[in-house]
Amino acid sequence: MRSMLFVPGDSPRKFEKASEGRADALIIDLEDSIVTEKKAEARGHTLSMLKSRPGPHQLYVRVNALDTGLTLADLAAVMPGRPDGIVLPKSQGGDDVRQVATWLEALEAAAGIAISSTRIVCVATETAGSIFGLGSYKGCSPRLAGLMWGAEDLSASLGATEKASGGVFHSPYRLARDLCLMAAAAAEVAPIDTVYTDIDNLAGLEQETRAARRDGFSAKALIHPKHVDIVNAAFAPTEAERAWAEKVIAAFASNPNSGTLRLDGQMIDKPHLRAAKKILGQT
């Protein structure tokens, strides 16, 4: 999964347009894009969208944060639509995942859905306090599929006046990004890069996405359909990377009892083999 495109939960028209694209996942949003008085209406639209299943995309639902008191009602409304996963905003750590997992188990049983089949992705850096919970995700639930970092709400939590300048995030946001990446790696789940908000700056989007892939992120959240193809292409391995990966895998296949090998004048070992398999999408 490379691209996760947000779609407002009250807009079937935007959902239909997003479904025509090549995003790997669509995140139907019940949180920030929906005003309070339209939350209930958006739940109904979201359920209809889930049931329509217009394409091959994975379908996630971003529910409202636990501290709003709306999360359980969101889940109860949408689970009959069998979403592939839930996106939990403003998550504070593993305990939040466990709470949502408990609710999901009951709702899956009620809807006749296979228990534990609904995944959870957490937006894990949206408050100052959430940074200190990043180390608690490891082992919290087998449902946990990814950790996404976010800068917009974190800015408000910090009381900051600016997140970035010249297309470069300031140090508090780089810290949140890097810690989220490491927390996801430690928990063995997907690290997901934040949205790119300068919608028409496609060159900047490509640059940011390539930097995310370089550092270890495996997917990016998106807010506009025209970003999808650029992000998908940026996460695709280059021909040189594929050729290197194939050579590494072939070298170890020919020497199954060796822990280290010499390839093109360089020493390679098992971490290189794992990297090669990741490039080619092998496990």
UniProtKB/TrEMBL annotation:
InterPro entries: Aldolase/citrate-lyase_domain (IPR005000), Citrate_lyase_beta/mcl1/mcl2 (IPR011206), Pyrv/PenolPyrv_kinase-like_dom (IPR015813), Pyrv_kinase-like_dom_sf (IPR040442). Residues 2-225 form the HpcH/HpaI aldolase/citrate lyase domain. Its cofactor is Mg(2+). GO terms for molecular function: lyase activity. Keywords: Lyase, Magnesium, Metal-binding. The keyword Lipoprotein does not apply. SUPFAM superfamilies: Phosphoenolpyruvate/pyruvate domain (SSF51621). This is CoA ester lyase. It holds the Pfam family HpcH_HpaI. Coiled coil: none annotated. Belongs to the HpcH/HpaI aldolase family.
